[in-house]
Amino acid sequence: MTIFSKIINREIKADIVYEDDLCLAFHDVNPQAPVHVLLIPKKPIESLDAFDDSDAMLAGHLLLKVPQIAATLDLADGYRTIINTGHNGGQTVFHLHIHIMGGRSLTWPPG
Ligand code: AMP
User: Which of 29, 37, 51, 68 is surrounded by the most beta carbons within 10 Å?
Assistant: First the structure.
C-alpha cells in the first residue's frame, strides 16, 4: 500500500481540495510552486504504464477534472500538469498521480 492509499483511507492527513467517487486531489506536502496539487484515482493504479483499456472512463474523468480543479485554485494565468512515470520519469510514489502546478511562471524544459 502506498502513502496515497493511506490518504484515501484517511490513515494519513492531507489538505484535500477535491473529492468524488473516483478521485481525490490534495496539496503536495513539498510544493515546487505556489500552487502544487496532486490529483489521484482512488483505484490504486501504479503508474500511467499500468493503465489499460478498461480504465478509459477513469482516464477521461481524471483529465476532465484537471481544469475544474484548477479553476478552484486561482490558476487563471495558467498551470502545468505533469505525470512522472517510472524511474527515469522521476516517479517516487507508485500510485498514479497528476501534478497540477502554477501560481508563477514555470520554466521549460524541466531538468
Ligand atoms: P512523483 O515524484 O511524481 O512520484 O511525486 C510524488 C509527490 O508526492 C512528490 O511531489 C511528493 O512531495 C508528494 N508527496 C509525498 N508524500 C506526500 C504526502 N503525504 N502528502 C502529500 N504529498 C506527498
Answer: 37
pTM for the whole structure = 0.98
Average pLDDT over every residue of 20-38: 98
Which pLDDT value is given to residue 8? 98
Please list every protein residue whose CB sits less than 6 Å from any atom of ligand 1: 3, 12, 14, 28-30, 38, 84, 90-93
Q: What is the atom index within ligand 1 of the atom nearest the CA of 94?
A: 4
- Residue by residue, DSSP assigns 51-80 as --GGGHHHHHHHHHHHHHHHHTTT-TT-EE
DSSP letter (8 states) at residue 55: G
Please give the Cα distance from 40 to 75 (Å, whole number).
Answer: 19
* Whether pLDDT at 65 is above 90: yes
Tell me the backbone φ, ψ of residue 55, rounded to 5 degrees. Answer: -95, 10
Taking domain 3-102, whether its CATH number is 3.30.428.10 is answered by yes
- Position 30 scores a pLDDT of 98
